[in-house]
């Protein structure tokens, strides 16, 4: 039985997904929250936030991510960084997942990625959990309700946490799998409730598709001066290194916090929401993000709370250090309504230096910027990936190696061309440790980093003296 609003010519049944229980198409936030609570997926928190946990997986599972190896993508995929799955194994996985889904209820959200209409990709998310539907409704962009009557997905993502893959049968590593099939325009996710897998799967496909159109896909946040989209800045960084926090600057307009494209028309957000780390979040240092944790519909993930008062504990990392909240961009008062910016005047690379060696800020030449972009020296922050319990120094090319299906030089050449063409100033900012390595030094104060960035973006820092 179906509920909600959908184009009947592009229903799940038309796509070959049949025999399900109730299918709920494009429910809005109140209905999704109601369904999630009724199904026992979580609890209502203060202000109507939705409080949930994700079981054994509280971070991404990058080693369980696969790309289906077909002739169409054979020469384009960076196979040293992307595990391959055979088409036959994928077909078995797909068939077994569909069989497992029989009789179960599912939630469908028809959304899109890419604020620039020229580069928009329509994505259908099929989720077993109602709160996953709420999460992805926040994180991707929502078409006008009238558009749903004619919506046809370019890509479909099926997320089934209750299904366990069989490595021997499905050609995967464990019983958890994220499999991308570029020929079939289909992504399958199984045996993980961690919501971040949904958004990063879509990001991975955009990182494959957009470079063919001359668009630089970036793992970055972005903002611009109030009323002046021409004055745009982008902030590259691995998950948990400060992209969301530093781009949510009350003195500038937020374009987005994590995933953007840089085209010949300027910068555009892929997403429609934010996915912020909440561990040690404070109303003094990050008031806008802090306020979202008590807004209706915000998804609060893996945070400990008082069962009587529902008060969140922002210091408790007993479930994971990777506590998160997901919310729509319009929950940030100074967010851009369009998700569009100009060509970046400033390209900032955030590195979380666990050794405490790099300076708080450094000005980079274009050549130095490319070195840091391609080497991607930083740290994996605790909890962002399975098994990471404390900062781990790493080289993550393009500041996002787990999401880059193409070879690094593809992204490097695009970025170098755009920096040269538009004359962007480049900066390296250390959001890691100072006064010593992790364990002896201290984390770089957010207020100090904000002050340095403000001086860089308004031009006053460039007028100062630098030393090599």
Any overview of this molecule?
- There is one protein chain.
- This protein starts with a strand and ends in an 11-residue tail after the last helix.
- The chain has helices at 29-38, 87-101, 130-139, 167-170, 196-209, 243-247, 287-292, 366-375, 408-422, 446-457; strands at 2-4, 23-25, 43-44, 50-52, 65-68, 83-85, 106-113, 121-127, 155-160, 177-181, 186-190, 216-225, 228-236, 253-256, 259-263, 266-269, 273-277, 299-301, 324-328, 340-341, 344-351, 361-364, 377-380, 392-395, 425-430, 433-434, 442-443.
- Helix content is 22%, strand content 27%.
- The longest helix has 15 residues, at 87-101.
- The chain has a nine-stranded mixed β-sheet, with helices on both faces.
- It has ten helices and 27 strands.
- Strand 8, helix 3 (130-139) and strand 9 (155-160) form a beta-alpha-beta unit.
- Helix 1 packs antiparallel against helix 3 and helix 8 (366-375) runs antiparallel to helix 9.
- The chain has two domains: 2-47 and 61-212, 3-Layer(aba) Sandwich (Phosphoenolpyruvate Carboxykinase, domain 1); 216-272 and 335-461, Alpha-Beta Complex (Phosphoenolpyruvate Carboxykinase, domain 3).
- It is α/β, with parallel strands linked by helices.
Summed up, what is this model?
This protein has 468 residues and is an alpha/beta fold.
